[in-house]
Specification:
Blueprint: H1 2-30, H2 38-52, H3 62-85, H4 102-113, H5 123-126, H6 129-159, H7 169-194, E1 205-214, E2 220-226, H8 231-244
Antiparallel strand pairs: 1-2
Helix pairs in contact: 2-7, 3-4, 3-6, 6-7, 6-8, 7-8
Length: 247
């Protein structure tokens, strides 16, 4: 009992200690202020604006901001839906998994663009590396960034009562991914890899059990299939993405 209490207290202390500097950092990022990563990431941010032909300084009305959110979400749905359906002919599929049914693809795509991430299947059994990485994991970032951006635009709505502009969705979205989600996921991925979490593109491995398992029909199971893949990065991104939507 004492160990449990100590763990909870220690956990809360760490969360509170990290929340203050991280909160200040996120606030500066969302206000467009310089942070310690600006020297590295600011050129990348500007390059993205130039490539996408975005004016990062433009102040959007609530209508334009809302349309931008819905436009990106709609595009994300189409991309994830297509990847799930066409999985069988896409790369990074060492197990030769076929595309999922249209209704499962529809449900999964809707789930991931709304940051609920509901899955009616085991990812290792049903989805290829490509689908998990380019489809669902990317969407973990995108939907989380959209959620955080919407949170901040609501806050701005309360603060800027006498101003028309509520910020720029595309600038908010870009900064959230570049300055917040990517650095945090990288640190978490490295931590997971250091603890032995799998990070590769190898085929699934078959391992021999130390002791056979006897099923009800008398059949003995002597081997188990162990999934491989870029697990560390996906776990890190999923944790930040799923929880990031409500940060």
């Amino acid at each position: 009992m004492e160990n449990t209490i100590i763990q909870y207290v220690l956990y809360l202390a760490i969360v509170i200690a990290l929340a203050i500097p991280l909160g200040n950092y996120i606030g500066k990022v969302m206000n467009g202020e310089r942070v310690f990563l600006s020297k590295i990431l600011l050129p990348v941010e500007k390059l993205m604006y130039k490539f996408l032909k975005i004016d990062g300084e433009e102040e959007m009305t609530w209508k334009k901001y809302g349309v931008s959110v819905l436009s990106l979400s709609g595009l994300s749905f189409v991309i994830v839906f297509a990847i799930l359906l066409l999985q069988g002919i896409l790369p990074l599929n060492p197990e030769g998994l076929k595309g999922v049914s249209w209704h499962l693809a529809f449900n999964t795509a809707i789930s991931f663009i709304t940051n609920t991430n509901w899955q009616a299947y085991s990812g290792e059994v049903k989805l290829s590396y490509f689908t998990q990485m380019v489809g669902l994991t990317v969407q973990n970032f995108v939907s989380a960034a959209v959620g955080i951006a919407v949170l901040f635009v609501v806050v701005r709505g309360f603060i800027r009562t006498k101003q028309e502009g509520l910020g720029n969705f595309w600038a908010d979205f870009t900064r959230i991914i570049l300055y917040i989600l990517m650095p945090l996921s990288l640190l978490l991925s490295i931590a997971l890899v250091s603890q032995g979490v799998v990070q590769n593109f190898s085929k699934y491995e078959k391992t021999t059990l130390l002791e056979p398992i006897v099923l009800e029909d008398g059949t003995q199971v002597t081997q188990q299939v162990v999934p491989e893949g870029p697990a560390a990065s996906q776990i890190a991104i999923k944790q930040l993405g799923t929880n990031g939507g409500g940060f």
